[in-house]
Specification:
- The complex is a heterodimer.
- Chain A is mainly beta.
- Chain A is built from no helices and eleven strands.
- Chain A has strands spanning about 5, 10-15, 20-25, 30-40, 45-50, 55-60, 60-65, 70-75, 85-95, 100, 105-110.
- The mean pLDDT of chain A is about 95.
- By secondary structure, chain B is mostly beta strands.
- Helix content of chain B is about 0%, strand content about 45%.
- Chain B contains no helices and eleven strands.
- In chain B, the strands form two sheets. In chain B, strands 2, 4, 5, 6, 9, 10 and 11 form a seven-stranded mixed beta sheet that branches.
- Chain B is globular.
- The chains are: A mainly beta, B mainly beta.
- The interface of A and B includes residues 9, 41, 42, 51 and 98 of A.
Chain lengths: ~110, ~120
């Protein structure tokens, strides 16, 4: 049972435009959500997080939106840069267990 | 602090051999996690520790897998009688328990240990 889903395996965006990466979850006990970026041969690197008590969190070019009723979150990158090309994973945590569940990832390619 | 360190970075072994991976977390982090990642998949949870106590193990972790965190510092993940299906990237991550506003509960990953079983 895939509790965290990223239904788009890949996404291509022109440099300077907005990248929108989506993530859906099924477990209503999840109350903390994170986005990670991964380059080949490296471990995932933390980007931004959001608690379930908020619906938006912003950090520079990165904004995460959370829609609890739809069990959906999205990561917006504006403006997209070629260096943003990587695989992006969303993760969800249940504060009762402190176990983090990851999605399958979306490969973002930003075209110069 | 140099972050989360994993050794070895690469391990090639023959089927049936035992392998051990080591993880040194960020020194002040009290939680340590092991994940496994295969091609095209996200990190899959294996187990985690709070200090030296192993709090949860995934059903993915068969009897051939064992993890330890003596004294609540570094951790080891041992795979006995390796099988070709064990080939994967094994990722270690650590975090600090605390208030989220302080930046706690964010997993910091190591670079991973890639296992190839021939």
């Amino acid at each position: 049972d895939q509790q965290v889903k990223q239904n788009s395996p890949s996404l291509s965006v022109q440099e300077g435009r907005i990248s929108i990466l989506n993530c859906d979850y099924t477990n209503s006990m999840f109350d903390y959500f994170l986005w990670y970026k991964k380059y080949p041969a490296e471990g995932p690197t933390f980007l931004i997080s959001i608690s379930s008590i908020k619906d938006k969190n912003e950090d520079g070019r990165f904004t995460v939106f959370l829609n609890k009723s739809a069990k959906h979150l999205s990561l917006h990158i504006v403006p997209s840069q070629p260096g943003d090309s990587a695989v992006y994973f969303c993760a969800a945590m249940d504060s009762g267990t402190y176990k983090y569940i990851f999605g399958t990832g979306t490969r973002l390619k930003v075209l110069a | 602090d140099t972050g989360v360190s994993q050794n070895p970075r690469h391990k090639i072994t023959k089927r049936g051999q035992n392998v051990t991976f080591r993880c040194d977390p960020i020194s002040e982090h009290n939680r340590l996690y092991w994940y496994r990642q295969t091609l095209g998949q996200g990190p899959e949870f294996l187990t985690y520790f709070q200090n030296e106590a192993q709090l949860e193990k995934s059903r993915l972790l068969s009897d051939r897998f064992s993890a330890e965190r003596p004294k609540g510092s570094f951790s080891t993940l041992e795979i006995q009688r390796t099988e070709q299906g064990d080939s994967a990237m094994y990722l270690c991550a650590s975090s600090l328990a605390g208030a989220r506003e302080s930046g706690a509960n964010v997993l910091t990953f190591g670079a991973g240990s890639r296992l190839t079983v021939l």
